[in-house]
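Q: Two folds, back to back.
A: First:
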Amino acid sequence: MRNFNYLATIAAGIGLAACTSEPEPPAAVSFAADVKPILEARCIGCHDIAAEGVAASGLNLADHAGVMAGTKFGPVVVPGNSDSSTLYLVVARKTDPEIHMPPHHRDALAEGRGEPLTGAEIDTLKTWIDQGALDN
């Protein structure tokens, strides 16, 4: 019986060690495969070269270069730091409601624009930025 208790203690310790190990890092996020489709589905209606969002802010989200160029007010992505990246903050609704993106006014929704990003889409953008906002 003493051997059984000893083995049970060891097994419990191994199980506890497995529970306290570091979580797996997120898989690599690709701009082309993961981020660009989100921008095309949720943002390009306003932030393409000839659209109102580009006219108002200068932010063209049609490609990686446009994303990294930011707005006429400055960058919207700080590679490696989503918490300092305006792009992430406005879509995650962590800013003043007046600048949340996409805008959720009736006209935008009627035109097929303005649907909020899903949690998974926001997480993808966050992870991409935190991984360095690469053009991959």
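A: Second:
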Amino acid sequence: MTPPAPWNRLSAHLAARFGGRVRKVALDAGLGTCPNRDGTAGHGGCAWCDPGGSGPDGPERGLPWEEVLRTAAAVAARRGETGVVAYFQAYTPTYAPPAALEAAGSRALAVPGVVGLAVGARPDCLSAGTLNVLQALAERTLLWVELGMQSAHDDVLRGTNRGHNHAATVRAAASLRKRGLRTVLHLIAGLPGEAPERARDSFSEAARLSPWGVKLHPLHIVSGAPLEESWRRGAVPLLSLEEYARLAADLLERLPPETLVHRLTGERPAGILLAPSWCAGKRGVLAAVAEEISRRGTRQGSRWLAESPEETAP
């Protein structure tokens, strides 16, 4: 009998829900830019973000997004897969006017084979109108909101030109929870100014916010990102694979067992990814994390369960 996986994988959850494999399709739906680029919150974007707004990287980049989505859904069907989730990824989709977001969501759901929506969001880009649209779309399909927390430390957020503080993340998570919307928190390990012990504090804070899911990836340098110049000067130390595996295991141990792990690494293609080179191999990174968890004899939720107060009878 195969032992249970040491963490609660999104892929397994979707397969159980829909009866087969479901893939995400990253899209640039043309939903505008970002308040951290146009001057509303700042200029230049977050220190790690590339000029394309961390959008899709494949050969389809630049093609009409609906064409990309239709093609991906058709390929999935030919492979015998159950469907695809349309992921509005590039820039800040929730910064768009609510009507534009609603139109994009409806057009995506009209594509045969689309079984859900994922929407990228900054904590400072969730107006009442946008929340109304997200709530309405969530009544039509499986929908989750991917909220960029990155760190719980305001000095780290300032140092990477994030353009908001952690209190904004706490408010945004509460607003999404009040609407019954599934929330996925994004975290980055190895940010400048966030030593491992401070990263573990961020992980504990993310767990405290009770997200539906979590994404973690290591800080990596991509072509055209504001951090590129500092990295080339040797001013930005990056994690080794072993260091990252330890931090990823630290996160898993702190998460509630039911939290879905959407990602434990980040992939960018050759020509865009500059460093660290080990980020190019997803399987190797996941294997290193699994090996670290096995070495510890722990799994997702081990520390969270140990540190949660025991319920007492009234």
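Q: And?
A: The mean pLDDT is 92.
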